[in-house]
Amino acid sequence: MVQILETLLDPDTIVFGGAIPSSLLDALCERMLPLLPSHADRPARELPRLTIGGADPWMVAAGAAAEPIARTFDPRFSAIQNGLVAPD
């Protein structure tokens, strides 16, 4: 899966994580090694190809709660282009 993501998206690193115990996350990451060769495995690379995430387990819930607020306060670009505000 890491090789497919690197081929499609060419990210700096792939963050592997979730709401599971860190011991299980570490074990899963170790089982994935060594990673298959990829074009992202270049010598000038600064970050590892696979990184274990360290975010708060509530990060997903906070992002989901912030989405309606962001949608309310984001500008409507169609209104800016037309000069008129379209009804919702």
UniProtKB/TrEMBL annotation:
It comes from the Bacteria. InterPro entries: ATPase_NBD (IPR043129). This is ROK family protein.
